[in-house]
Amino acid sequence: MTEKQEENSPHLLVTRTLVLDDYDRIVAIMQKCYPMMKGDVWLKSQIKKLIRIFPEGQLCVEDRGEVVAFALSIIVDYKKYGDSHSYEQIIDDSNFGTHTADGDVLYGIDVCVDPDYRGMRLGRRLYDMRKELCESLNLRSIVAGGRIPNYHKYKDQYTPKEYIQKVRHKEIYDPVLYFQMSNEFHVRKILKNYIPYDKASGSYAVLIEWNNIYYNEDETVFGNQKNFARIGVVQWQLRAARSIDSFFENVEFFVDAVSGYQADFLVFPELFNAPLMAEFNEDNAAKAIRKLAQYSNEIRDKMVEYAVSYNINIIAGSMPVYEDEKLYNVAYLCRRDGSYEAQYKIHVTPAERNDWGMIGGDKVQVFETDTAKIGILICYDSEFPELGRILADQGMEILFVPFATDMHNGYNRVRVCSMARAIENECYVVISGSVGNLPKVVNMDIQYGQSAVFSPSDFAFPHNAIVSEGTPNTENTIIADVDLNDLKHLHMHGSVRNLLDRREDLYKVKFKK
Questions:
Q1: Which of 367, 341, 338, 368 is nearest to 13 (CA)?
Q2: pTM for the full model?
Q3: Fewer Cβ neighbours under 10 Å: the N or C end of the chain?
Q4: Catalytic residue among 62, 135, 209, 270
Q5: Residue 396: band (very low, low, confident or very high) from pLDDT cuts 50, 70, 90
């Protein structure tokens, strides 16, 4: 991300482990979150000890260098405590002598989000980090004692059990319990006097648990990195948009739906904002698309906002960008930390050049994300093997291809070439296209598309090299998991090794600029 882009981004989120210098922010957040505790916050010595005995378990989200949310946890040998315990017992009266690296359960002892950042789903982000930690450490589950802060409003009407059922059936809203249930935690037990001074909860707490389905009782693994990427693909219906707000409503629907599956990436098609061009029908094609470009910065910023709020990396299809009196076709990678980068379409089609006066960019690059190294080639660019090879040389693992094609033959070019890119570059390729019609919108009036996720063709991958694909010419989404470790194995031990076996003594592909 350039300095200018960073300055214009409202947020720049980073997830990391806590350090002792974060203590003042921890106190400030706790005082805002728990005013009823009257200054009862973690001591600096306690935070220091947690960081010393279990540094990877103390997590936070920072925005532009300032901590705005944090989560604390320890590892316990759960059979020593069972389901009938108090908060003070589990944290050993804040001495944390209960923590043991040989334990089987990650116990959450605190989660706090700055109230000014609520609505950005930072709590879910922290929970997802805990789940990844639980899996990487090969722990059986995550357990925590959850407050039920709205129970005091209903204690004369319902028992705690009845209250939990009402929350589960969404007849009562409890912010803590609802959040935990939404994050795949189930209730193990109701605890009395878990935190005796928690009057809002009636001194009750709900013992919750998330089970690690990858847990291996005979294996302890430390420091594993994420091996899988979950990819969401939108097969986008081009429909009339009454306003940019209605356009955003359609976009947010898919972001919300796909993020609910805890996907790492979401990709939209090329020129997915074309419906907004309908209001410029009276202009010629060249003027209309330049007017459409006036929305591009606003849409990009909104996509960055969605990426942060829904905790998902978004490849925002592509949009026309008019800068320095030149018209480009640009795809934006909007990361869930609030940063973004741009990939310009290199090769413009004859129709883009003749009808719109569009020109090509001059750079391709691999983008680092928190899950994988990715590349973006917009539609026609996927039909030039040199670009994919340049990205593969930079370590690309997943190639995203947002496209827009009007007829089946045009779609076939993108599909077949994208499958070839996956095989020759030993990577996954994700294509996302539009369907439907836009009357009177030149170059975008009819669409044919079928989105898909392609893999290399070898024993570890599907026999037809298709991980998943959508229904042709119908609005739908794809959710697909891809194994990044399979790529690493393929590079060195595949039946054929396209990258390793290249005759670079005879030929080489490189970018001139």
A1: 338
A2: 0.76
A3: C
A4: 270
A5: very high
